[in-house]
Amino acid sequence: MLLRRIFISPAWHAACLHSTQPTLHSMRTQTSLQQSYQRAFQTCARQQALYRRQAFNYQRFQSSRNLFRRWRARPTFVYEVGGIMVITGGFYIYNQEQVPVSNRYRFNVVRPDYEAQLGQQQYEQTMQEFGRKILPACSPEHRMVQSVLNRLIPNSGLPSDYKWEAHVIDDEMKNAFVIPGGKVFVFRGILDVAEGEDGLAAVLGHEIAHNVAHHAAERMSQGWVFLAVEYLVSGFIGIDLGISNLVIQLAFTLPGSRAQESEADYIGLLMMAQSCYNPRAAMRLWSRMEQVEKGQGTPPQFVSTHPSSHNRLEKIAKWLPEADHKLESSECGFTTRFADDFRRRMPDFGLSYMNDAK
C-alpha cells in the first residue's frame, strides 16, 4: 500500500509558526492579515492532522498484518480457525427461525420484548417530533384509518397483547409506518395516493407485515454481524472502515432491506385479501406511486433501501392469483364476488332501463 504524502506549503508553514503582527498598517489591514494567518494556520493544521492520521492508519495496518502473520505461524492455527468457524456456524444455525407466511429462514437473535422496548423509544421520539400535528380521533382521516385497521388486525396473526393505536399526522408527506408494539402513524399525504380504503389497506397491510415478520429485529441482528465483519476485515486486512462499510452496504444491507420490503408487500397483500379488501387495489396504488417517483427523480434501485414501484408492480402481479384465492376463500368471498358482478352489470342494466323508459 502506498502512503500518500500531503504537501505542506513552506509559506503556510511559516505562517503557522513564525507569523508576527504588522505594525505599519491600518487596523483594518491588520485585521485582514490576522484573518489570513488564521485561515492559513487552520488549513495547515488540518493537513498536518490528516497526514498524521494516514500515518497512524498505515502503522495500524502494518501491526494488524504482523499480528495475523504471527497467529498464522502458530502450529495450532488451523485448529483455532476451525474451532471459531464451528462455534460461529453453530451459533448462526441455532438462531435460525422461519418468517411467518413467507416461510423464509433467517438469522435473528433479538427477542420480541427487546424489539418492543426499542419500539417504545421510537414512539416517544416520533410523538416528540409530530405530536402537535396529530389529527383528532373525530377527524374523517382518523376514522378511515381506524376502520381499515379494525379489519386488518384480526387477520395479521400478531399476539393479542399488541397495544394498537392509530395516529394520523397532518402533513403532506407520503408515508406511513407501524412501530413494533402496535403504534400506527399515517401521514395525510399518503391518503391522497391511496384513494380509498382498499388502497389504504394495501399501505397499512404492508406496514403491519413488517411487524408480522419482525423485520426490525432481523435488521438489528444482521447489523451486529456486519459490524463484527467490518472490524475483522479492517483489523486483519487493513481496509479502512469506511470502505468496508460501503461494500457491506451495497452488497448485503441494501439488498436485504429491499428483500424485506418485497416480503412485506407479499404478506400485506394476502392480509388485505383475507380482510375482504380487493388485492388489485395494491396494483393501482403502486402504479400511482410510480408516477410520483418519476416526478421526484428517485435514485437507482441498487442504492435504495426500497425496491422501485415498477419492480413492486411486477411482483404483485405474480402474487395476485394467490391473493384472489385468499379473497375467495375468506368469509366475504361470496359477497365480494356478488358486488363485483353487480358493478360489471350496472352499465348494461342502466342502458336496458333507459331503453324501457323510452
Describe the secondary-structure layout.
Elements lengths: L9 H9 L8 H47 L3 H18 L1 E3 L6 E3 L4 H19 L9 H13 L12 E5 L6 E4 L3 E5 H7 L2 H16 L2 H22 L4 H34 L5 H17 L12 H20 L4 H25 L1
Parallel strand pairs: 3-5
Antiparallel strand pairs: 1-2, 4-5
Helix pairs in contact: 1-2, 5-7, 6-7, 7-9, 7-10, 8-9, 9-11, 10-11
Overall description:
The protein is mainly alpha-helical and 358 residues long. The chain has three domains: 61 residues; 25 residues; 223 residues, no CATH class. The chain has twelve helices and five strands. Strands 3-5-4 form a three-stranded mixed β-sheet. The longest helix has 47 residues. The chain starts with 9 loop residues before the first helix and ends with a helix. The N terminus is likely disordered.
Given the structure, what is the number of helices? 12
Strand portion, in percent?
5-15%
Distance between the termini: 92 Å
Question: The biggest beta sheet, please?
Answer: 3 strands, mixed
What's the shape?
elongated
Number of domains: 3
Return the structural class.
mainly alpha
Spans of at least 5 consecutive residues with low confidence: 1-34, 36-56
Concise structural overview:
This is Peptidase M48 domain-containing protein. The protein is mainly alpha-helical. The chain has helices at about 10-20, 25-75, 75-95, 110-130, 140-150, 190-195, 195-210, 215-235, 240-275, 280-295, 310-330, 335-355, and strands at about 95-100, 105, 165-170, 175-180, 185.
